[in-house]
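stage 2 :: seqdesign
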């Protein structure tokens, strides 16, 4: 596991874009699970504006680590955020985009999307394997859409699960731990002072961290990079 600390959200975004360009250039095809959230939004804007021309988008296949169960045109949709800030600005073939269909019944969509992963990704050890999973972390230590009060869903014996947001009750579809930790590489994009306590507890292996789903992100490959700004890293 590696921790990279940068001055600001913007410099985290630039550094991650450089990492992503190199990763994509190094492989014949790249299957990536995207995250929602404010830091990925900054990354998508940076990627589209300054790095897109360095990427052969025909070899990039995009998925989502989680999605809200809303229409793809809803302002809450992670797909819509990605469409607005990245997909509408780069020349990625539509057939390379595999969105979680949030408008469907959550439980059946979790099954359907789990099958999409089995069909589209390389199967390694009986499980579909991403080249890269991009994650954020909530102030409460959630990641993807696995929350502390639903942490047992991390270990669900399926590729995806339907989960309710602990406050709003909004249903979401999320990858499970067996898929996230099976990825060749995982990148955490975590910025802002609100994350500092959880980042400290997790990266310093404090006992309290066990309650946070983000602490369960431990890729079998060992390739996990935390991209942090100084605020999120301020207690390290
Ligand atoms: C979502 C994201 C979620 C996000 C965290 C961090 O659907 O909201 O997948 O897991 O990454 O909530 O979000 P911020 O980066 O905006 O703090």
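stage 2 :: out
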């Amino acid at each position: 596991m590696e921790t990279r600390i940068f001055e600001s959200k913007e410099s985290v975004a630039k550094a991650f874009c450089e990492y992503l360009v190199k990763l994509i250039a190094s492989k014949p095809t790249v299957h990536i699970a995207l995250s929602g959230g404010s830091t990925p939004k900054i990354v998508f804007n940076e990627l589209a504006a300054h790095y897109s021309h360095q990427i052969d988008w025909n070899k990039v296949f995009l998925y989502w680590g989680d999605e809200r169960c809303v229409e793809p045109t809803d302002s809450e949709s992670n797909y819509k955020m990605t469409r607005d800030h990245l997909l509408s600005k780069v020349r990625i073939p539509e057939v390379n985009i595999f969105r979680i269909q949030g408008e469907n019944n959550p439980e059946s969509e979790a099954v359907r999307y789990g099958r999409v992963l089995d069909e589209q990704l390389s199967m390694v050890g009986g499980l579909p394997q991403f080249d890269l999973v991009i994650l954020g972390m909530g102030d409460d230590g959630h990641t993807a859409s696995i929350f502390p009060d639903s942490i047992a869903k991390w270990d669900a014996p399926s590729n995806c699960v339907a989960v309710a947001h602990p406050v709003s009750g909004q249903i979401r579809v999320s990858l499970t731990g067996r898929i996230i930790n099976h990825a060749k590489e995982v990148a955490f994009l975590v910025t802002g002072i609100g994350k500092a306590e959880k980042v400290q507890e997790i990266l310093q292996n404090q006992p309290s961290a066990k309650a946070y789903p983000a602490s369960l992100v431990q890729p079998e490959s060992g390739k996990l990079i935390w991209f942090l700004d100084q605020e999120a890293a301020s207690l390290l």
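stage 3 :: structure notes
- Residues 38 and 143 are 13 Å apart (CA to CA).
- DSSP finds six helices and eleven strands in the chain.
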